[in-house]
Protein: Protein-serine/threonine kinase
Amino acid sequence: MAAKKASETFSKSMIEDVHKWGCLKQTGVSLRYMMEFGSKPNERNLLISAQFLHKELPIRIARRAIELQNLPYGLSHKPAVLKVRDWYLDSFRDLRTFPDIKNMNDEKAFTDMIKAIKVRHNNVVPTMALGVQQLKKGMDPKIVDEDLDEIHQFLDRFYMSRIGIRMLIGQHVELHNPHPAPHCVGYIDTKMSPVEVARNASEDARSICCREYGSAPDVHIYGDPDFTFPYVPAHLHLMVFELVKNSLRAVQERFMDSDKVTPPVRIIVADGLEDVTIKVSDEGGGIARSGLPKIFTYLYSTARNPLDENEDVGVSDNVTMAGYGYGLPICRLYARYFGGDLQIISMEGYGTDAYLHLSRLGDSQEPLP
Ligand SMILES: Nc1ncnc2c1ncn2[C@@H]1O[C@H](COP(=O)(O)OP(=O)(O)OP(=O)(O)O)[C@@H](O)[C@H]1O
Structure:
């Protein structure tokens, strides 16, 4: 089926509106602000929050929609990318056609609407991965990895922005929860234990590994389980899960057919004044130095791509051990979103250390691409 142009589905005036809003300045929010603001989820604050999102979300969404239209090497015209663009345009329209929020009834309707927007965008990451895959398949072999840097940088901006949009929507929606979990403000747990989150994430990664290989290396966690700091447990879970999954895969692949005892994956949680650092260490053989620059790109994985098998079916929700090559770059974006970072140090022939730094201060503003 021929791909439709945006102008065939969306009115000219709406497209002009997208360009107008895409030029407006975005406003970043810090973890500390979200926490302080959300600790008093009274009607006044909910109204202020909804009014802020009513203005902020269309700006952020419009920027992404414009970028999606202007990608190099024809990526914008790939069917999967057009689908994602239409989700962004639909959401922009929903937000812009929503009248001014004046009272709690409006606020409730608005909250329902942004909740639906969040669901609409659930599959953006695998769908974009499919688009990139479609591009790679038909690509001129003369285009080398360096040329794809522009696409890589776009995807970094795009996914970073997505993390922010979903955080803001999720935080607002959660503030309506009449029975929040103890010491939770929206998505933020003011007393999150990194050791506990690391334990849960490791167990989840181990079960995927067991499903795939029939067994899984042990994971040993070192650190004070009573140590807590304010952070978003869902983000930390996702990051540790990805890192441990990579480590388990490397160790499993290296030791599954050997007589040697399988070494455990080790996680160390250190609480510094500025950062909480989580190190995930494995003896899975490491990564060759020549391969290191590639591991943070969206176009590289040594695993077979799961999309190869179900390209026509669309995107399956099945989590697999590896495959899109998105684990590390996305993990680093989550870390950077609240002022942290991710570094990978490898000793080829031995193993890999991943250092996940999380900023403790919570003062850094969202990076706004
Ligand atoms: N701990 C590790 N030991 C050895 N190689 C690793 C390790 N972590 C990552 N890698 C290498 O880096 C590549 C990219 O990792 P990344 O997590 O980004 O993607 P992936 O695991 O292949 O796929 P997925 O998107 O499912 O996470 C892997 O395919 C693997 O070759």
About this structure: The CA atoms of residues 195 and 265 lie 14 Å apart.
